[in-house]
Amino acid sequence: MCGIVGYIGGKKASSILVDGLKRLEYRGYDSWGIAAMGNKKLSYAKKVGRISQSGDLAKIGGNIGIGHTRWATHGGVSNKNAHPHFDCSKKFVVVHNGIIENFAGLKKQLISEGHKFESDTDTEVLAHLVEKYYDGDLKEAVRRALLEVDGTYGIAVMSTMEPDKIVAAKHGSPLIIGIGDDENFVASDATALMPYTKKVIYPEDNELVEITKDGFCTVTIDDKKVDRKVQEIDWEQGLAEKNDYPHFMLKEIFEQPQVVRNALAGRVIPTEGLAHLGGLNMSPEELLKVKRIVFVACGTAYYAGMVGKYMIEECASIPCEVEFASELRYKRILFDKDSLVLVVSQSGETADTIAAMKEIQRKGIKVLGISNVVGSTIARETDGGVFIHAGPEIGVASTKAFVGQITALAILALEFGRLKNLSFMEGKRIAEELKKIPEKIQKILDQSDKIEEIAGKYLNHDNFLYLGRRFNFPIALEGALKLKEISYVHAEAYSAGEMKHGPIALIDENFPSIFIVPKDSVYDKTISNMEEIRARKGKILMVTTEGNLDVEKYVDDVVYIPETLEMLEPLLTVIPMQLLAYYIAAMKGRDIDKPRNLAKSVTVE
Q1: Residue 300: enclosing H or E segment and its boundaries?
Q2: Cα–Cα dist 194/192, whole Å
Q3: Residue 16, Cβ neighbours under 10 Å: how many?
Q4: What is the pLDDT of residues 533-558, one digit of tens each?
Q5: For a surface tag, which of 12, 292, 419, 425 has the fewest beta carbons within 10 Å of its beta carbon?
Q6: Are 515 and 573 in contact (CB under 8 A)?
Q7: Nearest to 405 by CA among 278, 260, 250
Q8: Whether residue 285 is found in the same domain as residue 152
Q9: For the sheet containing 176-179, what is the strand order?
């Protein structure tokens, strides 16, 4: 969950490092540091806090360097625990993303051999191991050090002994190598490379890359040479800039009409009521053999999987399940050969999801991925899948990636449905309505001033209950999560029908409820649940369909959404949830793009 960046070339390294770390700050941001070399002289700086507090630290000289922004795991937030970390002689310097699980034993052994440690981190053992094994070849010393290590890592290492190279390696944590003209880069995320190059390579797990300003060489941890193809990143740099928005999150909320257009492009044929996702790598005959679908994900992606379950069961009558990745890998895997597993992850690097994916693949079960990042671990190691093409999502709390995931799942539901039991007219109706979703999202975004005004009325409440049914139950969960993530206000969500089985005990005039009640098949039932809240004098904010004016006299506030098909409602109902959370957090002065204790890409278990 940390960010790493490295540079070697003819330019001033520290400026590039600090710029790259600012772009990666969403990956971890309790402390940071850089180290750079020039004329075999190593200089470094480490600091607690945000990179915006960099002061004059970017003045460190040299044209080779590595940097790191930290999300603490082992050891508290302090200067001594900030990366980079060094060996005893400060000739070897390391930055690391991941967790060294056997660090305690390694540290004890190294101390017995005379090594002196300065930090409480697991990472520092790597620097001392490299020192221990160095015999004139930095790459070989790193390779031998990593043979001692259990756990996950994306690392970059440099040394005053060989000041013309960086050695990088990965196992279970993201790593990308940027290829420039007489300069090269290392990063844990392509976002750091956008201003400098679009040419990259993606090392696989258990590979090391020796990088000079003129090129790179890749080997396995067993020292076998590997040829890696240079690829091009297709994201535009402007997508990773805030432009005139006060926060990335608000910008990304307003980008969602285009996100849906991008996800639909070339995949839906309204005139024929058909959909096609070419990246699935499955023939129609193979798709027809699928008897069960299991979604595996964490956090917001898990809620997208819940929506996908409702969609596919509705369209294709295929039984679906949704599993937390963090729990599934420790359960007995009971899927059969007719099961299809869909792993969902914005970054494609979520550690729990990757671990679950590998466990499922060991059983010989087909796994597809839904991700936003080309070249991510999930994108490379699944049997096929879907890119949502949302562009870089910088705000830690996911918004546009969630909408992109739901759009992709709607397309998948349509494809399965037309193979199974959806008629031409039903398929045509879904495809046509999908094409209208972007303009309907925009219509809700045009009400942002009204939603901001409503947010002000609920600003001082400390607890919220979010309620929905069927397709909108996952949206209630996602709405509550967004409020918790960025405003630090307690919120919980329930299926509206379950509310009377316990949570209703919490309701009074100081505990408002957010009801998602479009005019759909469970409208009357959900209204009954709403009346139960009203009878207890609970305040109610309702999200419902345009034209449903009768409800205004029964609730405190209403947000209207355009009418759409019931299975596509989540693409619209989630927008007021996102805006409400954003405006409450903004009024409270929260650090919206980088909420406390959270990181964007959760690369530790």
Answers
A1: helix 299-316
A2: 6
A3: 26
A4: 888 888 899 999 999 888 888 899 99
A5: 425
A6: no
A7: 260
A8: no
A9: 41-48, 31-38, 64-70, 3-8, 184-187, 176-179, 199-201, 231-232
The CATH number linked to 546 is 3.40.50.10490
Give the torsion sign (CA, 484, 487, 491, 496).
Answer: negative
Rounded to whole angstroms, the Cα distance separating 239 from 102 reads: 40
Q: Which long-range contacts (CB under 8 A, 24 or more apart) does 422-429 make?
A: 422/273, 422/315, 422/316, 424/272, 424/273, 425/273, 426/273, 427/272, 427/273, 427/274, 427/275, 428/270, 428/271, 428/272, 428/273, 429/273, 429/565
* Beta bridge pairs of residue 513: 465, 540
Same domain (yes/no): 42, 121: yes
| 243 close to 249: Cβ distance less than 8 angstroms | no
Write the CA distances from 409 to 299, 312, 385, 445, 453, integer angstroms. Answer: 17, 8, 11, 23, 33
Residue that has been written with the tokens 């630090």 in this structure: 488
- The tens digit of pLDDT for each residue in 173-213 reads 888 999 999 999 999 888 888 889 989 988 888 999 999 99
CA–CA dist 521, 499 (Å, integer): 19
Report how far apart, in Å, the C-alpha atoms of 427 and of each of 264, 562, 570 are: 15, 21, 18
Q: Annotated catalytic sites, by residue?
A: 2, 600
Quote the tokens at residue 17.
Answer: 């490092």
Instruction: Give the tens place of pLDDT for each residue, 330-357.
Output: 888 888 889 999 999 988 888 889 888 8
Q: How far apart are CA 154 and CA 212, in angstroms?
A: 18
> H or E segment at 558?
strand 557-561
pTM: 0.78
CATH number at residue 202: 3.60.20.10
CA-to-CA separations, 194 to 220, 267, 392, in angstroms, rounded: 27, 28, 10
**Within 13 Å and on the Cβ side, how many CA atoms surround 397?**
31
Q: Dihedral of CA 321/326/331/332: which sign?
A: positive
> What secondary structure does DSSP assign to 408-461, as a single string?
HHHHHHHHHHHHTT--HHHHHHHHHHHHHHHHHHHHHHTTHHHHHHHHHHTTT-
Rounded distance between C-alpha atoms, residue 379 and residue 387, angstroms? 8
